[in-house]
Amino acid sequence: MSAFHEPVTLTRDVIGILIPQGTKVELPEGARAQITQALGGSFTVQVEGHLFRLEGKDADAIGQEVVRAPEIAADASDEEIEQAVWAQLKTCYDPEIPVDIVELGLVYECKVETLEPGRRRARVRMTLTAPGCGMGDILVADVKSKIEQIPTIAETDVELVFDPPWNQSMMSEAARLATGMY
After folding, report:
1. Predicted model pTM
2. For residues 34 and 8, is the Cβ–Cβ distance under 8 A?
3. 3-state secondary structure of 124
4. 130 phi and psi angles, rounded to 5 deg
């Protein structure tokens, strides 16, 4: 496994998301990259002076381990499933900020409801640090895919809202310390 910030060579072609634009770019096998952030199962890499986000499923392309889905008991209660959803939300990171979206104060609401026995829906209301953030769709997709890894979650609705607008006071104390915004 490669060390953080150590140069790596892509072992196969991989799709990276250009930061902050959110554009998908094919990065070729053999390209040299540097891992700048490895949090929550996704990776931020620098290739030829540009930052790209790589999904966790592509970790092997940079010599890292793929993060596995959480294990939940088949008879887990709604409360246990909601706790698992919150835990998954804490694995979602803005690719430029080394703090998860929960600690950043981007998640306004998270509810789990039963659709029928063995099938649940998760509803998340969240925002972005800036309304024009090019990574918004990428973060929403990350939230959906990570929540849908939880057994019995059959549907995930992620609503992106901008009222109230996000501000630094919504961050946890730990997030303010980590980002120097205290």
Report:
1. 0.78
2. yes
3. strand
4. -145, 135
